[in-house]
Amino acid sequence: MAKYNYSKMKKEAGQPCVGIFWIRNTGQTIDFPKPLNTIHGVSNFFDSPDTHYNMWNRVRTTFPEFAGKEYEEVPRGRVIFDGNSQRFKVYVPSDLVNTIIKNNIISGFGLPVAKVDFIGDSHYITPPKPEDVDNEADNF
Asked: Radius of gyration (Cα) for the chain, nearest Å?
């Protein structure tokens, strides 16, 4: 299987994009940007057709640290465009929003800084590891 050229996708986009991403422990993001002008909106919202479930096999075969994990076990998020407000909405685990990750997402999707809202979303919260749950139970 050929490796996916993530950086080439970013360079070819040339304009703001929507799409999905994962966040590595280093703060680097693994982006799947789709140029906004190639997306058809629904009710004036523009979203990539990519899903984390469908793209996961590419990610875990390219990044060895994810081998043996499921897509929902790694922090992830999504960038959409709200045509009503003319703003990009970035849905991300709220506990992971920091300057490094924000900058990586803005850069990876070619987003205009002044038109981006970062929104904490419980859908993208990484579930606790079994050993963390066991440790919490020991505290009672």
From this structure: 16
The domain of 89 spans: 6-138
Flag whether 33 is in a domain: yes
H-run or E-run covering 9: helix 6-13
Residue type, 122: S
Please count the structural domains in the chain: 1
Residue 70 is assigned to a structural domain of this protein: yes
Q: What is the pLDDT of residue 13?
A: 45
Element of type H or E holding 73: none
Contacts of 53 (CB under 8 A, 6+ apart): 71
Q: What is residue 125's three-state secondary structure? A: coil
C-alpha–C-alpha distance, residues 52 and 18, integer Å: 13
Q: How far apart are CA 3 and CA 28, in angstroms?
A: 18
- Whether residue 129 is predicted with pLDDT greater than 60 in this model: the reply is no
Cα-Cα-Cα-Cα dihedral sign, residues 107, 87, 51, 14: negative
Strands (E), 13-127: 17-23, 29-35, 45-46, 76-82, 87-92, 116-120
Q: Tokens 């490796």 belong to which residue?
A: 3
The pTM score is 0.81
